[in-house]
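To fix ideas, we give here one paired sequence and structure record:
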Amino acid sequence: MRERLKALALRREDLEARLSDPAVYGDGRKLAAIQRELKELAPVVEASRALEAAERRREEAEALLHDPELRDLAQEELSQARAEAEQLREELKRLLLPRDPNDGRNAILEIRAGVGGEEAALFAGELLRMYTMYAQRRGWRAEVLSLSGTELGGVKECGVLIEGEDVFSRLKFESGVHQVKRVPETESSGRIQTSTATVAVLPEAEEVDVAIDPKDLQIDAYRSSGAGGQHVNKTESAIRITHLPTGTVVTCQDERSQYKNKDKAMRVLRSRLYQRERERRDAAAASERRSQVGGGWRSEKIRTYRFLQSQVVEHRIGLTVHRLDAVLNGDLDEIIDALAAADRAERLKNGEG
């Protein structure tokens, strides 16, 4: 660990020196990358310096143990220094865990209604609202890339681009089947119904990440339509892009401009292909994209929203939050923080880093 900490300290010094380089200062992308890496290194370097200080205090206290007049004071200082050093070592183990290279990326959320008909579509719409409000709380920007709705205001499926700092690192834990238990407004008998929606979180891919041959694309333009098939645009502005080698299909009809719809569809396609390749390389994560969300069956749930008890149950870590309304209004940090902590603990247990 000591050698790695020394290397990281030297790396930080090098990055700080490069900030004054005119070539870097004039390049916004390079400058942002350096500043992002410096921000990531700062907690490690600070904890490392604090550990060195605690070790020095421990050594000084041990030297004073031989002095009868200072022995009691030295013993107390020694106990404090040892405890602090141990705490800092554990903190450094956590900080030195390998970072997912995609953590700093923007994310594309794909939400689809699962089991439950119209009630599932209404729930999918509530999830879309929840994530949009969470993005606002974090100071992120959310842009709907595609949306297929229902006549009652539900969402059959949608894609949302969320841009900001460390978006993917927070939202990646949301992938899976979300389940709701409640009495639907359309249910006259008052029976509780169980419905599901699936959420897939993809790191946004840049053009340099995925090479797409235009000859591999089939691009179709058609008239966009609203819920229930009602035409909302007389021009063929909606776009369907099919990536022929993989059979991946992306549609976008949110914009009135065919060019804008094509641009949005390409962003989604690029991210899906990037995720596909990422999963192929990482067999432990998944062998195909559907493993992230399953088929929408109730048995695959990661989280349940229980309206009668005003609870949100996170099944992966056994966490129950008694603030359903707050969660649906975008207050997700308690759940995501707990999931991130459990993920770090599991990786430490497995000896990563």
Observations:
- The chain has nine helices and eleven strands.
- Residues 228-233, 284-290 have pLDDT under 50 and may be disordered.
- The longest strand covers residues 193-203.
- The two ends are 10 Å apart (CA to CA).
